[in-house]
Amino acid sequence: MDGVLIDSEPIHIDIEKKIFDKLGIAVSAEVHRNYLGVAGDYMYQDLKTRFGLPGSLSELLHSDDAFRCDYFRQLEGLTLNEGVLNFILEIKQAGLKLGVATSSSPALAAILLERCDIFSFFDVVVTTFEAGKSKPFPDVYLLAAQKIGVEPADCIVFEDSPNGLSAARGAGMFTIAVQTSSVDVRDLLAANSLICSFEDTSLLKITRLFSGNHSAELSIK
Predict the structure, then answer these.
(1) Sheet of strand 193-195: strand arrangement
(2) Is the pLDDT of residue 183 over 70?
(3) Do 104 and 132 touch, CB atoms closer than 8 A?
(4) 61-67: which pairs have CB atoms within 8 A and are 24 or more residues apart?
(5) For helices 203-211 and 84-93, angle between their N-to-C axes, nearest 10 degrees
(6) Range of the domain at 196
(7) H helices of the chain, where?
(8) Is the dihedral of CA 220, 168, 127, 25 positive or negative?
(9) Is the dihedral of CA 141, 191, 175, 101 positive or negative?
(10) Distance (Å, rounded) from C-alpha 97 to C-alpha 146?
(11) pLDDT tens-digit profile of 2-11?
């Protein structure tokens, strides 16, 4: 969801910087990059280990989620990434099942998808909170496949973070990396293929890659 469908990843990064300041900790850019695509429990457990943060993990997660939800409710100009809506419509018109597997909380996922008017397109919205483990573990993708009734090997995943790609590959799914400004493209080379934008692709191109009719070549731009 974040970064792939909605141009929200830079906003999350800014939110986390504000939260780190409130907590009085200095998180380096290198460490911060490790949290891209992961759930809050994964991030805060690591921060507690690094900085000895006071309070329970549950309290930190509750405060974080409340702050993010309030921030995004009030945020103006939240937009879909270019080409996303047309691509979603292609998928739905083809009669394929469509799901979201996200590290955001259930409340925040609903806010973002509803504000961008795409919630109704998805057969399932599954979060790592429900799955029980954060990306890079594959649990959220396996649960999403189970809920839509599709074998993992028959799923195509679009991801924009190394942690997300690790999760999808661990689930045995075909992976398409979506290049964004938040991640160095060299960190996405584990994907089966890479696109710069949904404007640059189509359902036909993706299914050909998936079926093996065309070789999946990575192009770095």
Answers:
(1) 156-159, 174-178, 193-195
(2) yes
(3) no
(4) 64/19, 64/40, 65/40, 65/105, 65/107, 65/108, 67/15, 67/18, 67/19
(5) 70
(6) 1-221
(7) 9-23, 29-33, 40-51, 57-74, 84-93, 106-115, 128-131, 139-148, 162-170, 203-211
(8) negative
(9) positive
(10) 12
(11) 999 998 989 9
Looking at the 3D structure of the chain, how many domains does it have? 1
Mean pLDDT of 111-126: 97
HSE value, Cβ hemisphere, 13 Å, CA-based, for 117: 3
Burial class (CB in 10 A: 0-12, 13-18, 19+), 162: buried
pLDDT at 181: 79
Check which CATH number belongs to the domain holding 181 and give it: 3.40.50.1000
Q: What digits encode the pLDDT tens for the residues 49-106?
A: 999 999 999 999 999 999 999 999 999 989 999 999 999 999 999 999 999 999 999 9
Residue 26 identity: A
Q: Is 212 helix (H, G, I), strand (E, B) or coil?
A: coil
Alpha carbon separation from 16 to 22, 160, 189 (Å, rounded): 10, 18, 26
Structural tokens at position 182? 């938040």
Q: How far apart are CA 221 and CA 218, in angstroms?
A: 10
**pTM of the entire predicted model:** 0.87
Of the chain, the percentage scoring pLDDT greater than 90 comes to: 86
DSSP state of 6: B
